[in-house]
Amino acid sequence: MSDIPSRTAETAAGGAVDGDLARARDGDDIAFTRLVEPLRRELHAHCYRMLGSTHDADDALQDALLRAWRGLARFEGRSSLRSWLYTVATRTCLDVIEARGRRALPMDLGPSSDRVVVGDVPLTDVAWLGPYPDAGIADGPAGPDARYEQREAVELAFVAALQHLPGNQRAALLLFEVLGFAAAEIATMMETSTASVNSALQRARSIVAEKIPSPTQQRTLREIGDARLREIVAEYSTALERGDADALVALLTEDVTWSMPPLPHWYRGLEAVTDFAVRVPLTTCGSWRHLPTAANGQAAVACYRWNDDAGAHLGWSINVFGLRGRRIREITSFIGLDHFAAFGLPASLP
Fold first, then answer.
1. Cα–Cα distance between 234 and 153 in angstroms, integer?
2. How far is it, in rounded angstroms, from Cα 151 to Cα 35?
3. Taking Cα atoms as reference points, which of 149, 139, 157 lies closest to residue 178?
4. Which of 13, 81, 211, 219 is spaced 20 to 30 A from 3 at the CA atom?
5. H helix runs in the chain, sequence order
6. For the chain, which ranges sit under pLDDT 50?
7. Per-residue pLDDT, 220
8. What pLDDT does 100 receive?
9. Nearest of 326, 322, 90, 133 to residue 212 by alpha carbon
10. Alpha carbon distance 200, 165 (integer Å)
11. Looking at domain 14-101, which CATH architecture does it have?
12. What one-character-per-residue DSSP string does 91-107 give?
């Protein structure tokens, strides 16, 4: 008897969805919005994983939902609405990948620099990987058959590794390992054979396994705990604001890396990173202010740099940290005020 209320609720919910679907097919855009709204966040995260850019994900999702709205009459209900929307979103992203190619981090372009490069100039002809706000990431796995947690699947190392895969392999890996679709379902979604999907999965797993460090950031963050994580972010911010090189170096691993897309040069190892930090952000960039945030399921901080003309600290970069144990092994500074709006961050600080 205890199951009756829940089954009644499920039946009512199913009836509401069917009613909205019928109304949407008749041209009711409000009914269509009600149908897709519960899936919007996870579809957006899927587009980011495919494309490596929040801005591209915004555009791709908008395009995909427009395609779905216009093609709703072709949805015959043989699969779930969720599966069909993922089909439309995936094909939309594949079109973008074919037209634009993959996104990169500085380490994809060349070796690290041993000494600071003063006056490094942004490369504007490179499609750069971008950060993703944690507010758009769900917790846990997407389904019982998913191998990756949702937050693991947006970690920078994972998304960067995906960029080295052809579009079909990228899509197959995400649909199977992250979202838990069966190979036969994916074959239908991508209009190919199950054998082709399994082959794509095999090749994709091999490439991704070579590029992703272990353990994942999710495991590391659970091990060190929230209190130590807050300490790391606060100590990093304080070190930059005070120009304290010793305090900054104390937070870093011996093999730390620091990259700053869209700047092409990057640094590996404590000596090179210290040389860069002392000669650039700690001494020549002026005053800094910071706000803690979270990006790609990882610890992060928003950096604001003083601007004389504005008379304020303007948004400069989103710094995403990769941790090993209780220290920082990787800093990726995504430079550009255009990143701040997606994180709900102010454009300036006093």
1. 26
2. 25
3. 149
4. 81
5. 4-25, 29-36, 40-51, 54-70, 81-100, 156-162, 167-173, 183-189, 194-211, 217-242, 245-249, 270-279
6. 1-13
7. 96
8. 87
9. 322
10. 10
11. Orthogonal Bundle (1.10)
12. HHHHHHHHHH---B-GG
Q: Which CATH architecture has domain 217-349?
A: Roll (3.10)
Name the residue among 317, 321, 306 with its Cα closest to residue 345: 317
Q: Which two tokens stand for residue 188?
A: 């239908």
Q: What is the dihedral of CA 83, 200, 49, 192, to 10 degrees?
A: -30
CB 48 within 8 A of CB 57: yes
Angle at CA 321, nearest 5°, toward 317 and 89?
75
Q: In terms of Cα–Cα distance, which of 208, 174, 200, 204 is closest to 42? A: 174
| pLDDT value at residue 6 | 46
Q: Tell me the three-class secondary structure of 182-198, residue by residue.
A: CHHHHHHHCCCCHHHHH
Name the residue ranges covered by the structural domains of the chain. Answer: 14-101, 217-349
pLDDT at site 13: 46
Per-residue DSSP letter, 112: P
